[in-house]
Amino acid sequence: MNALFARIVVLVSGAAILIVETLATRLVAPYVGLTLESTSAVIGVALAGIAAGASLGGRWSDVLPPRRVAAGALAVGGLGVLAVRPLVRVLGPALGPGPFAAILLVAASTLVSVTALAMVTPAVTRARLSGLEGSGTVIGQLSAASTVGALAGVFLTGFVLVALLPVAAILLVTAVVCLLLALCTATVRTRSTVTSAAVAAAVLGIALVAVPGRCDTDTVYYCARVDVEDDVRVLVLDDLRHSAVDLDDPAYLQFAYTQRFADAIDTAFAAGEPLDAVHLGAGGFTMPRWLAATRPGSTSVVLEIDQGVVELGRRELGVAEIPGVEVRIGDARTGLAEVPSASADLVVGDAFGARSVPWHLATAEFAAEVHRVLRHDGIYVLNVIDHPPFRLLAAEAATLAQRFPHVALMARPEQLAQGVGGNAVIVASDRPIDIAELGARAAARGEPGSVLGDAATRELADGAPVLVDDWAPVDQLLS
Protein backbone atom coordinates (compact mmCIF):
# COMPACT_ATOMS: atom_id res chain seq x y z
CA MET A 1 0.00 0.00 0.00
CA ASN A 2 1.67 3.22 -1.15
CA ALA A 3 1.92 6.26 1.10
CA LEU A 4 -0.53 8.48 -0.79
CA PHE A 5 -3.27 5.86 -0.96
CA ALA A 6 -2.79 5.05 2.73
CA ARG A 7 -3.29 8.70 3.64
CA ILE A 8 -6.42 8.92 1.51
CA VAL A 9 -7.89 5.85 3.19
CA VAL A 10 -7.34 7.06 6.75
CA LEU A 11 -8.45 10.59 5.85
CA VAL A 12 -11.75 9.32 4.46
CA SER A 13 -12.37 6.98 7.38
CA GLY A 14 -11.72 9.81 9.84
CA ALA A 15 -14.07 12.09 7.94
CA ALA A 16 -16.77 9.43 7.80
CA ILE A 17 -16.72 8.99 11.58
CA LEU A 18 -17.33 12.68 12.21
CA ILE A 19 -19.94 12.92 9.46
CA VAL A 20 -21.91 10.13 11.12
CA GLU A 21 -21.63 11.62 14.58
CA THR A 22 -22.43 15.17 13.46
CA LEU A 23 -25.56 13.92 11.72
CA ALA A 24 -26.47 11.64 14.64
CA THR A 25 -27.33 14.71 16.74
CA ARG A 26 -29.89 15.71 14.12
CA LEU A 27 -31.20 12.21 13.52
CA VAL A 28 -31.97 11.42 17.16
CA ALA A 29 -33.40 14.86 18.01
CA PRO A 30 -36.98 14.06 16.85
CA TYR A 31 -37.10 11.19 19.34
CA VAL A 32 -34.98 12.22 22.35
CA GLY A 33 -34.82 15.99 21.92
CA LEU A 34 -31.85 18.24 21.18
CA THR A 35 -30.31 18.82 24.59
CA LEU A 36 -26.90 18.95 26.18
CA GLU A 37 -27.45 15.32 27.22
CA SER A 38 -28.19 14.13 23.67
CA THR A 39 -25.15 16.01 22.34
CA SER A 40 -23.04 14.52 25.13
CA ALA A 41 -24.37 11.06 24.24
CA VAL A 42 -23.21 11.51 20.65
CA ILE A 43 -19.74 12.64 21.70
CA GLY A 44 -19.44 9.88 24.30
CA VAL A 45 -20.51 7.11 21.93
CA ALA A 46 -18.14 8.42 19.26
CA LEU A 47 -15.18 8.38 21.65
CA ALA A 48 -16.10 4.89 22.87
CA GLY A 49 -16.32 3.63 19.29
CA ILE A 50 -13.02 5.26 18.32
CA ALA A 51 -11.27 3.71 21.34
CA ALA A 52 -12.73 0.26 20.67
CA GLY A 53 -11.95 0.47 16.96
CA ALA A 54 -8.36 1.54 17.53
CA SER A 55 -7.82 -1.38 19.89
CA LEU A 56 -9.49 -3.97 17.66
CA GLY A 57 -7.86 -2.68 14.49
CA GLY A 58 -4.39 -2.88 15.99
CA ARG A 59 -4.95 -6.32 17.51
CA TRP A 60 -6.45 -7.91 14.39
CA SER A 61 -3.76 -6.43 12.16
CA ASP A 62 -1.18 -8.38 14.13
CA VAL A 63 -2.87 -11.73 13.38
CA LEU A 64 -4.47 -11.07 9.98
CA PRO A 65 -3.21 -9.37 6.82
CA PRO A 66 -3.57 -5.64 7.59
CA ARG A 67 -4.99 -4.80 4.14
CA ARG A 68 -7.72 -7.37 4.69
CA VAL A 69 -8.53 -5.85 8.07
CA ALA A 70 -8.67 -2.34 6.57
CA ALA A 71 -10.86 -3.44 3.66
CA GLY A 72 -13.23 -5.34 5.94
CA ALA A 73 -13.45 -2.41 8.35
CA LEU A 74 -14.27 -0.01 5.51
CA ALA A 75 -16.94 -2.39 4.18
CA VAL A 76 -18.56 -2.87 7.59
CA GLY A 77 -18.26 0.84 8.29
CA GLY A 78 -19.93 1.72 5.00
CA LEU A 79 -22.77 -0.68 5.69
CA GLY A 80 -23.08 0.73 9.20
CA VAL A 81 -23.34 4.27 7.83
CA LEU A 82 -26.22 3.19 5.62
CA ALA A 83 -27.96 1.55 8.57
CA VAL A 84 -27.80 4.59 10.87
CA ARG A 85 -30.93 6.38 9.67
CA PRO A 86 -33.19 3.30 9.40
CA LEU A 87 -32.10 2.17 12.88
CA VAL A 88 -32.86 5.57 14.39
CA ARG A 89 -36.29 5.64 12.77
CA VAL A 90 -37.15 2.13 13.92
CA LEU A 91 -35.75 2.34 17.47
CA GLY A 92 -36.48 6.01 18.20
CA PRO A 93 -40.25 5.69 18.76
CA ALA A 94 -39.72 2.66 21.01
CA LEU A 95 -37.09 4.26 23.24
CA GLY A 96 -38.78 7.65 23.67
CA PRO A 97 -37.22 10.85 25.07
CA GLY A 98 -34.69 11.35 27.83
CA PRO A 99 -30.92 11.27 28.39
CA PHE A 100 -30.63 7.49 28.83
CA ALA A 101 -32.75 6.88 25.76
CA ALA A 102 -30.41 9.24 23.89
CA ILE A 103 -27.37 7.15 24.85
CA LEU A 104 -29.07 3.91 23.84
CA LEU A 105 -30.37 5.28 20.55
CA VAL A 106 -27.04 6.81 19.53
CA ALA A 107 -25.13 3.67 20.53
CA ALA A 108 -27.51 1.29 18.77
CA SER A 109 -27.45 3.29 15.56
CA THR A 110 -23.84 4.50 15.26
CA LEU A 111 -21.50 2.42 17.44
CA VAL A 112 -20.92 -0.34 14.85
CA SER A 113 -20.07 2.07 12.03
CA VAL A 114 -17.81 4.24 14.19
CA THR A 115 -15.99 1.26 15.69
CA ALA A 116 -15.41 -0.29 12.26
CA LEU A 117 -14.19 2.92 10.70
CA ALA A 118 -11.87 3.56 13.66
CA MET A 119 -10.19 0.21 12.92
CA VAL A 120 -8.95 1.51 9.56
CA THR A 121 -6.13 3.78 10.74
CA PRO A 122 -4.27 1.18 12.88
CA ALA A 123 -4.72 -1.43 10.13
CA VAL A 124 -3.37 0.87 7.42
CA THR A 125 -0.54 1.95 9.71
CA ARG A 126 0.41 -1.70 10.28
CA ALA A 127 0.33 -2.31 6.54
CA ARG A 128 2.71 0.60 5.94
CA LEU A 129 5.24 -0.42 8.59
CA SER A 130 8.09 -2.61 7.38
CA GLY A 131 10.37 -2.14 10.35
CA LEU A 132 11.30 0.22 13.15
CA GLU A 133 13.25 2.59 10.95
CA GLY A 134 11.01 5.45 9.88
CA SER A 135 8.06 4.07 11.84
CA GLY A 136 7.58 7.31 13.76
CA THR A 137 7.16 9.24 10.53
CA VAL A 138 4.63 6.74 9.17
CA ILE A 139 2.59 6.70 12.37
CA GLY A 140 2.67 10.50 12.67
CA GLN A 141 1.67 11.12 9.05
CA LEU A 142 -1.23 8.68 9.13
CA SER A 143 -2.43 9.94 12.50
CA ALA A 144 -2.34 13.49 11.16
CA ALA A 145 -4.23 12.46 8.01
CA SER A 146 -6.94 10.81 10.10
CA THR A 147 -7.29 13.93 12.24
CA VAL A 148 -7.46 16.17 9.18
CA GLY A 149 -10.18 13.91 7.83
CA ALA A 150 -12.10 14.20 11.09
CA LEU A 151 -11.84 17.99 10.98
CA ALA A 152 -12.99 18.03 7.37
CA GLY A 153 -15.91 15.77 8.26
CA VAL A 154 -17.23 17.92 11.07
CA PHE A 155 -16.71 21.30 9.38
CA LEU A 156 -17.96 20.25 5.94
CA THR A 157 -21.03 18.61 7.45
CA GLY A 158 -21.91 21.45 9.81
CA PHE A 159 -21.16 24.35 7.49
CA VAL A 160 -21.75 23.02 3.98
CA LEU A 161 -23.31 19.61 3.47
CA VAL A 162 -26.34 19.95 5.77
CA ALA A 163 -27.28 23.19 4.03
CA LEU A 164 -26.95 21.63 0.56
CA LEU A 165 -28.13 18.03 0.86
CA PRO A 166 -30.70 15.95 2.77
CA VAL A 167 -29.29 13.85 5.58
CA ALA A 168 -30.07 10.64 3.67
CA ALA A 169 -28.02 11.84 0.70
CA ILE A 170 -25.02 12.74 2.88
CA LEU A 171 -25.06 9.31 4.51
CA LEU A 172 -25.46 7.57 1.15
CA VAL A 173 -22.49 9.38 -0.40
CA THR A 174 -20.36 8.70 2.68
CA ALA A 175 -21.21 5.00 2.61
CA VAL A 176 -20.55 4.66 -1.12
CA VAL A 177 -17.12 6.28 -0.77
CA CYS A 178 -16.26 3.91 2.10
CA LEU A 179 -17.34 0.86 0.09
CA LEU A 180 -15.40 1.95 -2.99
CA LEU A 181 -12.29 2.42 -0.87
CA ALA A 182 -12.89 -1.01 0.66
CA LEU A 183 -12.90 -2.51 -2.84
CA CYS A 184 -9.70 -0.66 -3.77
CA THR A 185 -8.00 -1.66 -0.51
CA ALA A 186 -9.01 -5.31 -0.65
CA THR A 187 -6.67 -7.98 -1.98
CA VAL A 188 -7.84 -10.19 -4.83
CA ARG A 189 -8.89 -12.88 -2.35
CA THR A 190 -11.16 -10.55 -0.39
CA ARG A 191 -12.78 -8.60 -3.25
CA SER A 192 -15.64 -11.09 -3.56
CA THR A 193 -16.48 -10.44 0.09
CA VAL A 194 -16.47 -6.70 -0.48
CA THR A 195 -18.67 -7.17 -3.53
CA SER A 196 -21.16 -9.04 -1.36
CA ALA A 197 -21.06 -6.11 1.04
CA ALA A 198 -21.92 -3.81 -1.87
CA VAL A 199 -25.03 -5.90 -2.55
CA ALA A 200 -26.01 -5.59 1.09
CA ALA A 201 -25.36 -1.88 0.77
CA ALA A 202 -27.89 -1.64 -2.03
CA VAL A 203 -30.51 -3.18 0.23
CA LEU A 204 -29.64 -0.82 3.08
CA GLY A 205 -29.65 2.09 0.67
CA ILE A 206 -33.25 1.31 -0.18
CA ALA A 207 -34.04 1.15 3.55
CA LEU A 208 -32.28 4.46 4.07
CA VAL A 209 -34.82 6.11 1.81
CA ALA A 210 -37.84 3.88 2.33
CA VAL A 211 -38.15 3.78 6.12
CA PRO A 212 -40.55 6.63 6.93
CA GLY A 213 -39.45 9.38 9.26
CA ARG A 214 -41.02 12.31 11.07
CA CYS A 215 -39.73 15.12 8.84
CA ASP A 216 -41.14 17.06 5.95
CA THR A 217 -37.97 19.12 5.94
CA ASP A 218 -34.49 18.65 7.40
CA THR A 219 -33.45 22.17 8.31
CA VAL A 220 -30.03 23.10 9.60
CA TYR A 221 -31.24 22.66 13.19
CA TYR A 222 -34.47 20.65 13.12
CA CYS A 223 -36.46 17.82 11.73
CA ALA A 224 -39.48 19.93 10.79
CA ARG A 225 -42.96 19.23 9.51
CA VAL A 226 -46.41 20.79 9.37
CA ASP A 227 -49.40 18.66 10.42
CA VAL A 228 -52.98 19.61 9.56
CA GLU A 229 -55.44 19.09 12.42
CA ASP A 230 -59.04 20.18 11.74
CA ASP A 231 -57.94 22.97 9.38
CA VAL A 232 -55.31 24.13 11.89
CA ARG A 233 -51.70 23.82 10.76
CA VAL A 234 -49.32 22.71 13.49
CA LEU A 235 -45.57 23.22 13.20
CA VAL A 236 -43.61 20.32 14.71
CA LEU A 237 -39.89 20.75 15.32
CA ASP A 238 -38.11 17.54 16.25
CA ASP A 239 -40.53 15.94 18.75
CA LEU A 240 -42.40 19.05 19.95
CA ARG A 241 -45.51 20.82 18.66
CA HIS A 242 -44.33 24.44 18.54
CA SER A 243 -47.03 26.49 16.85
CA ALA A 244 -50.63 26.27 15.66
CA VAL A 245 -51.93 28.46 12.84
CA ASP A 246 -55.36 28.92 11.30
CA LEU A 247 -54.78 30.57 7.92
CA ASP A 248 -58.41 31.74 7.84
CA ASP A 249 -58.24 33.32 11.31
CA PRO A 250 -54.95 35.16 11.99
CA ALA A 251 -56.11 36.04 15.52
CA TYR A 252 -56.52 32.35 16.42
CA LEU A 253 -54.40 31.17 19.35
CA GLN A 254 -54.60 27.47 20.18
CA PHE A 255 -51.78 26.86 22.64
CA ALA A 256 -52.25 28.12 26.19
CA TYR A 257 -48.88 29.85 26.32
CA THR A 258 -49.74 31.98 23.29
CA GLN A 259 -53.04 32.90 24.94
CA ARG A 260 -51.09 33.98 28.02
CA PHE A 261 -48.84 36.08 25.81
CA ALA A 262 -51.95 37.76 24.42
CA ASP A 263 -53.39 38.35 27.91
CA ALA A 264 -50.19 40.03 29.05
CA ILE A 265 -50.02 42.21 25.93
CA ASP A 266 -53.68 43.23 26.09
CA THR A 267 -53.36 44.01 29.80
CA ALA A 268 -50.31 46.20 29.30
CA PHE A 269 -51.45 48.14 26.23
CA ALA A 270 -54.68 49.76 25.08
CA ALA A 271 -56.84 47.70 22.75
CA GLY A 272 -55.89 48.03 19.11
CA GLU A 273 -52.78 50.11 19.83
CA PRO A 274 -50.04 49.25 17.31
CA LEU A 275 -46.85 47.96 18.90
CA ASP A 276 -43.21 47.60 17.96
CA ALA A 277 -42.23 44.05 18.86
CA VAL A 278 -39.13 41.89 18.79
CA HIS A 279 -39.67 38.13 18.67
CA LEU A 280 -36.96 35.74 19.85
CA GLY A 281 -37.63 32.69 17.71
CA ALA A 282 -40.04 32.43 14.81
CA GLY A 283 -41.80 29.09 15.14
CA GLY A 284 -44.95 29.37 13.07
CA PHE A 285 -45.01 33.19 13.39
CA THR A 286 -48.12 32.88 15.58
CA MET A 287 -47.59 36.04 17.62
CA PRO A 288 -46.50 38.32 14.73
CA ARG A 289 -49.62 37.13 12.89
CA TRP A 290 -51.81 37.82 15.94
CA LEU A 291 -50.30 41.28 16.48
CA ALA A 292 -50.86 42.24 12.83
CA ALA A 293 -54.50 41.08 13.03
CA THR A 294 -55.46 42.56 16.41
CA ARG A 295 -53.23 45.63 16.39
CA PRO A 296 -53.00 46.85 12.79
CA GLY A 297 -49.88 48.86 12.08
CA SER A 298 -47.72 46.81 14.46
CA THR A 299 -44.18 45.96 13.43
CA SER A 300 -42.47 42.68 14.28
CA VAL A 301 -38.73 42.04 14.05
CA VAL A 302 -38.33 38.26 14.15
CA LEU A 303 -34.93 36.85 15.15
CA GLU A 304 -34.72 33.25 13.94
CA ILE A 305 -31.57 31.19 13.71
CA ASP A 306 -32.93 28.61 11.27
CA GLN A 307 -33.54 29.72 7.68
CA GLY A 308 -35.25 26.38 7.01
CA VAL A 309 -37.97 27.09 9.58
CA VAL A 310 -38.66 30.45 7.94
CA GLU A 311 -38.82 28.90 4.47
CA LEU A 312 -41.16 26.17 5.71
CA GLY A 313 -43.35 28.88 7.25
CA ARG A 314 -43.48 30.74 3.96
CA ARG A 315 -44.44 27.57 2.08
CA GLU A 316 -46.94 26.10 4.50
CA LEU A 317 -48.01 28.79 6.98
CA GLY A 318 -48.56 31.93 4.93
CA VAL A 319 -45.75 33.83 6.63
CA ALA A 320 -45.08 36.01 3.57
CA GLU A 321 -48.62 37.41 3.85
CA ILE A 322 -48.21 38.80 7.40
CA PRO A 323 -47.84 42.60 7.27
CA GLY A 324 -45.17 44.48 9.19
CA VAL A 325 -42.80 41.54 9.65
CA GLU A 326 -39.02 41.76 9.23
CA VAL A 327 -37.13 38.46 9.53
CA ARG A 328 -33.48 38.47 10.55
CA ILE A 329 -31.68 35.16 10.26
CA GLY A 330 -29.17 34.57 13.02
CA ASP A 331 -28.78 33.84 16.69
CA ALA A 332 -31.23 35.77 18.87
CA ARG A 333 -28.51 36.94 21.25
CA THR A 334 -26.31 38.49 18.59
CA GLY A 335 -29.38 39.68 16.71
CA LEU A 336 -30.83 41.46 19.74
CA ALA A 337 -27.51 43.24 20.26
CA GLU A 338 -28.10 44.98 16.91
CA VAL A 339 -31.58 46.21 17.85
CA PRO A 340 -31.54 49.91 18.90
CA SER A 341 -32.04 50.79 22.56
CA ALA A 342 -35.55 51.78 23.72
CA SER A 343 -37.02 50.77 20.35
CA ALA A 344 -39.53 48.08 21.33
CA ASP A 345 -42.77 48.03 23.27
CA LEU A 346 -42.68 44.26 23.47
CA VAL A 347 -40.12 41.45 23.45
CA VAL A 348 -41.50 37.93 23.04
CA GLY A 349 -39.22 35.13 24.21
CA ASP A 350 -40.17 31.89 22.50
CA ALA A 351 -36.86 30.40 21.38
CA PHE A 352 -36.16 26.81 22.32
CA GLY A 353 -33.39 24.28 22.02
CA ALA A 354 -35.53 21.14 22.41
CA ARG A 355 -37.44 21.71 25.69
CA SER A 356 -35.38 24.42 27.30
CA VAL A 357 -34.68 28.05 26.58
CA PRO A 358 -31.19 28.13 25.00
CA TRP A 359 -28.84 28.77 27.89
CA HIS A 360 -27.38 31.99 26.48
CA LEU A 361 -30.91 33.42 26.17
CA ALA A 362 -31.69 32.65 29.81
CA THR A 363 -28.99 34.60 31.63
CA ALA A 364 -28.85 37.91 33.47
CA GLU A 365 -26.64 39.32 30.73
CA PHE A 366 -29.27 38.55 28.12
CA ALA A 367 -32.01 39.96 30.35
CA ALA A 368 -30.00 43.17 30.43
CA GLU A 369 -30.05 43.23 26.62
CA VAL A 370 -33.82 42.76 26.62
CA HIS A 371 -34.14 45.56 29.16
CA ARG A 372 -31.99 47.83 26.97
CA VAL A 373 -34.17 47.24 23.89
CA LEU A 374 -37.49 47.85 25.71
CA ARG A 375 -39.02 51.28 26.13
CA HIS A 376 -39.71 52.45 29.68
CA ASP A 377 -43.29 51.08 29.56
CA GLY A 378 -42.45 47.96 27.56
CA ILE A 379 -42.90 44.33 28.65
CA TYR A 380 -40.98 41.09 28.21
CA VAL A 381 -42.97 37.85 27.98
CA LEU A 382 -41.02 34.60 28.16
CA ASN A 383 -42.22 31.05 27.55
CA VAL A 384 -40.57 28.48 29.84
CA ILE A 385 -41.16 24.71 29.88
CA ASP A 386 -40.42 22.99 33.17
CA HIS A 387 -41.47 20.11 35.38
CA PRO A 388 -41.24 19.34 39.11
CA PRO A 389 -39.32 20.47 41.08
CA PHE A 390 -39.39 23.54 38.75
CA ARG A 391 -35.74 24.42 39.18
CA LEU A 392 -35.43 26.01 35.75
CA LEU A 393 -38.63 28.05 36.13
CA ALA A 394 -37.53 29.31 39.55
CA ALA A 395 -34.04 30.16 38.28
CA GLU A 396 -35.42 32.04 35.29
CA ALA A 397 -37.87 33.92 37.50
CA ALA A 398 -35.00 34.83 39.85
CA THR A 399 -32.91 36.00 36.91
CA LEU A 400 -35.61 38.28 35.51
CA ALA A 401 -36.63 39.50 38.98
CA GLN A 402 -33.06 40.72 39.49
CA ARG A 403 -33.23 42.91 36.37
CA PHE A 404 -36.89 44.02 36.27
CA PRO A 405 -38.69 45.65 39.23
CA HIS A 406 -41.99 43.95 38.36
CA VAL A 407 -42.54 40.29 37.45
CA ALA A 408 -45.52 37.97 37.21
CA LEU A 409 -45.97 34.29 36.43
CA MET A 410 -48.78 32.72 34.41
CA ALA A 411 -49.41 28.97 34.77
CA ARG A 412 -52.39 26.79 35.56
CA PRO A 413 -52.62 26.21 39.33
CA GLU A 414 -52.45 22.44 38.92
CA GLN A 415 -49.16 22.77 37.03
CA LEU A 416 -47.46 23.98 40.19
CA ALA A 417 -49.63 22.61 42.99
CA GLN A 418 -49.99 19.09 41.62
CA GLY A 419 -46.60 18.85 39.98
CA VAL A 420 -47.95 18.52 36.45
CA GLY A 421 -45.51 20.85 34.76
CA GLY A 422 -45.63 22.22 31.23
CA ASN A 423 -45.49 25.69 29.72
CA ALA A 424 -45.43 28.76 31.94
CA VAL A 425 -45.10 32.42 30.96
CA ILE A 426 -43.08 34.98 32.90
CA VAL A 427 -43.98 38.64 32.43
CA ALA A 428 -41.35 41.24 33.30
CA SER A 429 -41.53 45.03 33.13
CA ASP A 430 -40.22 48.29 34.55
CA ARG A 431 -43.79 49.44 35.18
CA PRO A 432 -46.31 47.79 37.51
CA ILE A 433 -48.24 44.86 36.07
CA ASP A 434 -52.02 44.94 36.51
CA ILE A 435 -52.34 41.53 38.18
CA ALA A 436 -56.11 41.87 38.73
CA GLU A 437 -56.74 42.57 35.04
CA LEU A 438 -54.34 39.82 33.99
CA GLY A 439 -56.08 37.35 36.31
CA ALA A 440 -59.52 38.38 35.02
CA ARG A 441 -58.47 37.74 31.42
CA ALA A 442 -57.07 34.34 32.36
CA ALA A 443 -60.26 33.42 34.23
CA ALA A 444 -62.39 34.53 31.28
CA ARG A 445 -60.71 32.00 29.01
CA GLY A 446 -60.85 29.18 31.55
CA GLU A 447 -57.67 29.50 33.63
CA PRO A 448 -58.79 31.01 36.96
CA GLY A 449 -56.14 31.45 39.61
CA SER A 450 -53.35 31.06 37.07
CA VAL A 451 -51.57 34.37 37.68
CA LEU A 452 -48.94 34.87 40.40
CA GLY A 453 -48.19 38.49 41.24
CA ASP A 454 -44.82 40.01 41.94
CA ALA A 455 -44.56 38.86 45.56
CA ALA A 456 -45.67 35.29 44.82
CA THR A 457 -43.35 35.05 41.82
CA ARG A 458 -40.40 36.26 43.86
CA GLU A 459 -41.34 33.76 46.58
CA LEU A 460 -41.21 30.98 43.97
CA ALA A 461 -37.80 32.26 42.92
CA ASP A 462 -36.51 32.62 46.48
CA GLY A 463 -33.30 30.64 46.90
CA ALA A 464 -33.06 29.82 43.21
CA PRO A 465 -29.78 30.69 41.47
CA VAL A 466 -29.54 33.64 39.11
CA LEU A 467 -28.38 32.35 35.74
CA VAL A 468 -25.33 34.08 34.30
CA ASP A 469 -23.16 33.55 31.25
CA ASP A 470 -20.58 31.81 33.41
CA TRP A 471 -23.13 29.35 34.85
CA ALA A 472 -26.42 28.50 33.18
CA PRO A 473 -27.02 24.70 33.12
CA VAL A 474 -30.55 24.98 31.75
CA ASP A 475 -30.77 21.38 30.50
CA GLN A 476 -29.73 20.00 33.87
CA LEU A 477 -32.10 22.28 35.76
CA LEU A 478 -34.93 21.12 33.50
CA SER A 479 -34.02 17.44 33.81
Shape: elongated
Give the quaternary arrangement of the chains: single chain
Number of strands: 12
Which whole number gives the mean pLDDT? 89
String of helices and strands: HHHHHHHHEEEEHEHEHEHEHEHEHEHEHH
- Strand line-up of the largest beta sheet: 7-6-5-8-9-11-10-12
Distance between the termini: 51 Å
| Fraction of residues in β-strands | 5-15%
Q: How many alpha or pi helices?
A: 18
Low-confidence region ranges: none
Radius of gyration: 26 Å
- Give the % helix: 55-70%
Largest sheet: 8 strands, mixed
Helix/strand/pairing category:
alpha/beta
Give a verbal description of the structure.
- With 479 residues, the chain is of the alpha/beta class.
- It has 18 helices and twelve strands.
- The strands form two sheets. It has an eight-stranded mixed beta sheet with strand order 7-6-5-8-9-11-10-12, sandwiched between helices. A four-stranded antiparallel beta sheet has the order 1-2-3-4.
- Helix 3 runs antiparallel to helix 7.
Quickly describe the structure.
The protein is an alpha/beta fold.
List the helices and strands and how they pair.
Elements: H1 3-32, H2 36-63, H3 66-95, H4 99-118, H5 120-128, H6 135-164, H7 167-185, H8 191-210, E1 217-218, E2 223-229, E3 232-237, E4 240-245, H9 256-268, E5 276-280, H10 286-294, E6 299-304, H11 307-316, E7 325-329, H12 332-337, E8 344-349, H13 364-373, E9 374-386, H14 391-403, E10 406-410, H15 413-417, E11 422-429, H16 435-444, E12 451-452, H17 454-461, H18 474-478
Parallel strand pairs: 5-6, 5-8, 6-7, 8-9
Antiparallel strand pairs: 1-2, 2-3, 3-4, 9-11, 10-11, 10-12
Helix pairs in contact: 1-2, 1-3, 1-4, 1-5, 1-6, 1-7, 2-3, 2-4, 2-5, 3-4, 3-5, 3-7, 3-8, 5-6, 7-8, 9-16, 13-14, 14-17
